[in-house]
């Protein structure tokens, strides 16, 4: 976001299901963040199967969280992919690359904190162009 970021939250054990997504991501993090931002908050995730369950949609609806709808199979429209790419390059370029899950989580967390705030702000500001592409893709109407 502009002028800040949250901590990086790593969910590393087992398969992510819709219920885990609700319990470990939506309720403890997204709901609180939405409460801080207010009514103009629009949540953006991707089209991962676990994000698209009826239980997840019911949870979002019950919490009053509006989701920005993206076309299927369109990671290039999702600006977080640029952030993940930068984060991955930082981790790969470390003097001592991670050798197991624990050192990978540690490296990701450290490198997340080091990412330049300007990179995050540039990605946020690119949303105007990305939403325009999405609107065009959906025939001229906003997909939410």
From TrEMBL:
Domain named Tc1-like transposase DDE: residues: 33-97
MF terms (GO), sorted A to Z: nucleic acid binding
Protein name per the record: DDE_3 domain-containing protein
Origin species: Trichonephila clavipes
Gene: AVEN_118335_1
């Amino acid at each position: 976001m502009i002028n800040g970021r949250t901590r990086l939250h790593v969910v590393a054990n087992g398969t992510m299901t819709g219920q885990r997504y609700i319990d470990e991501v939506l309720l403890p993090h997204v709901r609180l963040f939405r409460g801080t931002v207010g009514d103009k908050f629009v949540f953006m995730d991707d089209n991962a199967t676990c994000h698209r369950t009826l239980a997840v949609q019911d949870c979002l609806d019950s919490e009053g969280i509006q989701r920005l709808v993206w076309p299927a199979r369109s990671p290039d429209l999702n600006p977080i992919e640029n952030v993940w790419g930068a984060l991955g390059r930082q981790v790969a370029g470390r003097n001592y690359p991670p050798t197991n899950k624990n050192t990978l989580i540690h490296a990701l967390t450290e490198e997340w904190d080091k990412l330049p705030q300007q990179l995050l702000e540039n990605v946020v500001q690119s949303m105007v162009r990305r939403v325009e592409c999405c609107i065009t893709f959906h025939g001229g109407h906003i997909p939410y």
